[in-house]
Amino acid sequence: MIRKVGKEMFGMTLGKGAPEGKEAWWWNEKRDNDGRTPLISAASNGDINLVKSLVNRGGNIEETDNLGNTALVYATWYNHPATIEFLLSKGANIEHAQKDGHTPIFFAARRGHLNLINLLIDKGADIEKRDVYGGTALIWAAREGTVDAVKALLSRCSEIDVRSNDQKTPLIHAAEMGHLDTVKYLVNRGVDIEAKDNAGITAVLWATWNNHADIVNFLLFRSAFTKNAQEGSEVTPICGAEGGHLSYVIEPRG
């Protein structure tokens, strides 16, 4: 979870308010309770002039906070392209991964920042990079329901039926989380709507279980399946409805 840092951190004016005898480097070394440096704070706020001043005075662009996030990650989360371009020009690692394995392209995808998705890819970001869960930027865009990010990533040749460690495809993630627009777009792009995760569960059963009736109806209409959503079992949408996860019973089609 990324939380914004206030501009007032440590005074945030170089040389003003520093203890006697301390130079600008003192500001670069200070951290708040979450481990964030003044450079991370400045990048979070998109204060490009302060970012430049701190870097030019020796601020380490690869310093991380307690969660492993760098200034580049914060600039991406809060959509500050000028700050991102400057940090990259100074050698910031575009593939830096925080503790969950998320690189800047993941954060751009999760937040739906189309400008940053294209910027980062143009600068060499790996769109098929995996996090610790086996997820990619596309999987996270689908899971967060940022459909425009899904479109942008697919336009840059991201793998449409990629699977996370639990064998969930972007469609399964989107259906599970209830993102109808994303589900529709993926289906219209030709995803495998019969794909199953490692428990043998398809997108339509995940939608049923989580009471996303609009998605269930759409997937059934698109022939997601009529029976046997789980490998070797009799679990179907109607079983999910009987379990109390929908407000109505879905009749199987003949």
TrEMBL record:
<feature type="repeat" description="ANK">
    <location>
        <begin position="67"/>
        <end position="99"/>
    </location>
</feature>
<feature type="repeat" description="ANK">
    <location>
        <begin position="166"/>
        <end position="198"/>
    </location>
</feature>
<protein>
    <submittedName>
        <fullName>Uncharacterized protein</fullName>
    </submittedName>
</protein>
<feature type="repeat" description="ANK">
    <location>
        <begin position="133"/>
        <end position="165"/>
    </location>
</feature>
<dbReference type="Pfam" id="PF12796">
    <property type="entry name" value="Ank_2"/>
</dbReference>
<feature type="repeat" description="ANK">
    <location>
        <begin position="34"/>
        <end position="66"/>
    </location>
</feature>
<keyword id="KW-0040">ANK repeat</keyword>
<keyword id="KW-0677">Repeat</keyword>
<dbReference type="InterPro" id="IPR036770">
    <property type="entry name" value="Ankyrin_rpt-contain_sf"/>
</dbReference>
<dbReference type="InterPro" id="IPR002110">
    <property type="entry name" value="Ankyrin_rpt"/>
</dbReference>
<dbReference type="Pfam" id="PF13637">
    <property type="entry name" value="Ank_4"/>
</dbReference>
<feature type="repeat" description="ANK">
    <location>
        <begin position="100"/>
        <end position="132"/>
    </location>
</feature>
